[in-house]
C-alpha cells in the first residue's frame, strides 16, 4: 500500500534543537510514523520530559551542535543503543530575539547590528548543520543510506519584508536582522552541496523551508503576515509534520538536493 511508504518502523531519527516549538512537532511526527527518536537539545532535562511524552523506545541527549566532542559522544551513545542512524533533522538554530521591546527596533537595525550576534548565528545555524552532518550523517554514508533534513526558511529564499513588523500606527517595532535570512540561505546551499557529495552513497539530503508559525505574536503582526500568504493565515506548529515524515521516509525516495517550501503561498507571488 502507498501508505507504507511513509512508515518509519525500525528507523532511528535524531532531531537537534528538539525541544523548541517546531522541534517538538518534528519529534512527535517521526515517532508517530514508527521511528525511534533521539531527542537532542541543549537542555537535556527538557529532552527527557519530551521522551517521557513520546513513550518507550526513544532517547534524550544533551547536545551542543557547535561542539564536535558533544556530537561524537552522541554518535557513540546512539550506535550503542540502536546500532544505526537513518534520519537526521538539523533543526537547531538561533533566531534573534531582543529582550527589551522598547529598544528592539534600534538594536535590530542593520546599522547597529553587532558582529557578535552575526558570528553566533553562523556558528549555530551553519557550522552546527555542517558538524552534525559530518559526524552523524557520516554514519549514514558509511552504511550506504539515510535521509538528512536541513531546516531552512522562506527567509532563505526571499528577503524579509520589514513592513510586516510595523504596527497599526506605522511604528517599526522591529527589523528582521540579517543573520537569520543569510544563514538560512547558506543552509539551502549546503543542502545542495551535500546531496551532490553523498548521492552515490544513497544519502538523500533535502531542505525544508517553513513559513512563519503562529506563536502568540502581536495581533498586528499576525494580520500583516497572514495578508501576505495565499492561504490567509500563519502556520500552525503542526502544519509541518507531514513534510517531515515525507522527507524522512521512502515516500521521497527519489528526492534529493531539493528545498521543500511549506509556507502557505508566501513565496509564490
Output the CATH class name. Answer: Alpha Beta
Q: Kindly report how far apart the N and C termini lie.
A: 36 Å
Number of structural units classed as domains: 1
- The count of helical stretches stands at 8
Number of strands: 7
| Helix/strand order | EHEHEHEHHEHEHHE
Rg from Cα: 19 Å
**CATH architecture identity:** 3-Layer(aba) Sandwich
Any descriptors?
alpha/beta, Rossmann fold, 269 residues, single chain, seven-stranded parallel beta sheet
Structure description:
Strands 3-2-1-4-5-6-7 form a seven-stranded parallel β-sheet, sandwiched between helices. The mean pLDDT is 96. The chain has a single domain, classed as 3-Layer(aba) Sandwich (Rossmann fold), CATH 3.40.50. The chain has helices at 21-32, 44-54, 68-82, 104-108, 115-143, 179-198, 219-226, 241-248; strands at 12-15, 36-41, 59-62, 87-90, 146-151, 203-210, 259-262. The protein is 40% helix and 13% strand. Helix 1 (21-32) packs across helix 8 (241-248) and helix 5 runs parallel beside helix 6. The protein is an alpha/beta fold and 269 residues long. Strand 1, helix 1 and strand 2 (36-41) form a beta-alpha-beta unit. The radius of gyration is 19 Å and the shape is globular. 42% of the residues are buried.
Amino acid at each position: 500500500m502507498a501508505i507504507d511508504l511513509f512508515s518509519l518502523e525500525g528507523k532511528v531519527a535524531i532531531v537537534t534543537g528538539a525541544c523548541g516549538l517546531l522541534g517538538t512537532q518534528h519529534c512527535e511526527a517521526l515517532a508517530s510514523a514508527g521511528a525511534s527518536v533521539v531527542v537532542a537539545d541543549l537542555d537535556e532535562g527538557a529532552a527527557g520530559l519530551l521522551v517521557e511524552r513520546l513513550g518507550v523506545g526513544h532517547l534524550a541527549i544533551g547536545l551542543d551542535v557547535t561542539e564536535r566532542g558533544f556530537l561524537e559522544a552522541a554518535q557513540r551513545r546512539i550506535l550503542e543503543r540502536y546500532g544505526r542512524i537513518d534520519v537526521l533533522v538539523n533543526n537547531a538554530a538561533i533566531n534573534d530575539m531582543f529582550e527589551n521591546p522598547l529598544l528592539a527596533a534600534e538594536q535590530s537595525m542593520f546599522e547597529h547590528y553587532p558582529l557578535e550576534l552575526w558570528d553566533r548565528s553562523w556558528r549555530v545555524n551553519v557550522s552546527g548543520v555542517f558538524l552534525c552532518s559530518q559526524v552523524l550523517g557520516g554514519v549514514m554514508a558509511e552504511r550506504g543510506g539515510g535521509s538528512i533534513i536541513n531546516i531552512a526558511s522562506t527567509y532563505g529564499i526571499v528577503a524579509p519584508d520589514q513592513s510586516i513588523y510595523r504596527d497599526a500606527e506605522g511604528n517599526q517595532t522591529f527589523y528582521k536582522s540579517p543573520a537569520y535570512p543569510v544563514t538560512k540561505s547558506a543552509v539551502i546551499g549546503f543542502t545542495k552541496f551535500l546531496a551532490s557529495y553523498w548521492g552515490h552513497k544513497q544519502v538523500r539530503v533535502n531542505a525544508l523551508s517553513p513559513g512563519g508559525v503562529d506563536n502568540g505574536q502581536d495581533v498586528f503582526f499576525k494580520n500583516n503576515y497572514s495578508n501576505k500568504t495565499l492561504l490567509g493565515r500563519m502556520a500552525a506548529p503542526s502544519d509541518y509534520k507531514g513534510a517531515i515524515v515525507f522527507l524522512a521516509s521512502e515516500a521521497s525516495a527519489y528526492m534529493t538536493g531539493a528545498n521543500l517550501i511549506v509556507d502557505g503561498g508566501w513565496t509564490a507571488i
